[in-house]
């Protein structure tokens, strides 16, 4: 079963579940085989980058940073999506997100250190 992601709320869950103000609109058919790619694209869109730009920069995950607020928003979105796609509980989704974030997550911008 596929999950379609669209709209400002980050998918088919209602806006009360995920208060998102400036989330990128990405309309993908998300399933087990493409969820990682979707989450990477989604995270990159949050910082104004594309997958094509990432492919041109071997060090994209070190060079580009995300604010703490955007990271928290992305994490909430990703965990809800992982729960839905993999039909797992929140704890398992959080563990899965932690592995994803370790491998593909952008560094969080330190407030004392500008981009």
Q: Give the overall form.
A: globular
As a whole number of angstroms, the C-alpha radius of gyration is: 14 Å
Portion of residues within helices: 40-55%
Main structural class: mainly alpha
Which stretches are poorly predicted, pLDDT < 50 over at least 5 residues? 6-21
Largest sheet: 2 strands, antiparallel
Number of helices: 5
The end-to-end distance, rounded to whole angstroms, is 40 Å
Mean pLDDT: 81
Strand content: 5-15%
Give the number of domains. Answer: 1
Walk across the major sheet and give the strand order. 1-2
DSSP, total strands: 4
Order of helices and strands: EEHHHEHHE
Structure, explained:
The protein is mainly alpha-helical. The chain has five helices and four strands. The strands form two sheets. A two-stranded antiparallel sheet has the order 1-2. α1 (35-46) packs antiparallel against α4. It starts with a strand and ends in a 7-residue tail after the last strand. Residues 6-21 have low confidence and may be disordered.
């Amino acid at each position: 079963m596929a999950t379609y992601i669209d709209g400002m709320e980050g998918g088919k869950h209602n806006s009360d579940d995920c208060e998102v103000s400036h989330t990128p609109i990405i309309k993908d058919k998300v399933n087990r085989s493409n969820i990682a790619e979707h989450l990477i694209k989604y995270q990159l869109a949050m910082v104004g980058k594309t997958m094509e730009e990432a492919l041109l920069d071997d060090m994209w995950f070190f060079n580009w940073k995300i604010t703490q607020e955007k990271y928290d928003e992305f994490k909430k979105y990703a965990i809800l999506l992982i729960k839905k796609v993999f039909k797992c509980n929140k704890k398992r989704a959080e563990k899965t997100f932690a592995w994803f974030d370790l491998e593909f997550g952008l560094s969080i911008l330190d407030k004392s250190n500008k981009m």
